[in-house]
Specification:
- The protein is an alpha+beta fold.
- The chain has a single domain, classed as Glucose Permease (Domain IIA).
- The protein has 1 helix and 11 strands.
- The strands form 2 sheets. Strands 1, 2, 4, 5, 6, 8, 10 and 11 form an 8-stranded antiparallel β-sheet that branches. A 3-stranded antiparallel β-sheet has the order 3-9-7, with no helix packed on it.
- Strand 5 and strand 6 form a beta hairpin.
- 31% of the residues are buried.
- Keywords: Signal.
- Pfam families: Peptidase_M23.
- InterPro entries: Cell_wall_metabolism_enzyme (IPR050570), Dup_hybrid_motif (IPR011055), M23ase_b-sheet_dom (IPR016047).
Length: 160
């Protein structure tokens, strides 16, 4: 029984990974050396803990959770242009920002989105609220950093 559930979970995760890869490959944005001169700020101001680190069991971002995190405001880690602000079956309500020089950030599982595609945002600007939409087991912020469409460890970018 458990083996069957593990197989089903693996198949589901493979489908989600494929959908995410397709979504990323179809997105247009800047390219470059992946260096931001201004650096990034942490996207939350509330108390938090890291519930899952980048790379753990193939995890492609960092999950940031907390006792009272649901509905807390999420802020842009750096200034840029919103590439997309929409719902995705895996990421749920999510925002993808192009910061230039090939660097993008994604903020996923939001309960609400406060920006629109094409909008210019400043570092520290409100972009949405923490939630649990999409493929999520509870309220948290799933944060990703891309360099030239490749996901990289986001933790050093935000001081974790």
């Amino acid at each position: 029984m458990i083996s069957s559930l593990d197989s089903q979970n693996d198949a589901y995760q493979a489908k989600m990974d494929k959908l995410e890869a397709q979504s990323i490959s179809n997105t247009t944005g800047s390219s470059g050396n992946g260096v931001l001169s201004s650096g990034m700020s942490f996207p939350l101001t509330c108390n938090y803990y890291v519930s899952q680190h980048y790379g753990h069991n193939g995890h492609k971002g960092v999950d940031i959770a907390g006792a009272n995190i649901n509905g807390q405001p999420v802020y842009a880690a750096a200034g840029g242009t919103v590439i997309s602000a929409s719902y995705h079956s895996s990421w749920g309500n999510n925002v993808l920002i192009d910061h230039g020089n090939g660097v993008w950030t994604r903020y996923a599982h939001l309960s609400s989105i406060g920006v629109s595609a094409g909008q210019t945002v400043s570092q520290g600007q409100y972009i949405g609220k923490v939630g649990s939409t999409g493929n999520s087991s509870g309220p948290h912020l799933h944060f990703e950093v891309y360099v030239n469409k490749n996901r990289v460890n986001p933790e050093p970018y935000i001081g974790l």
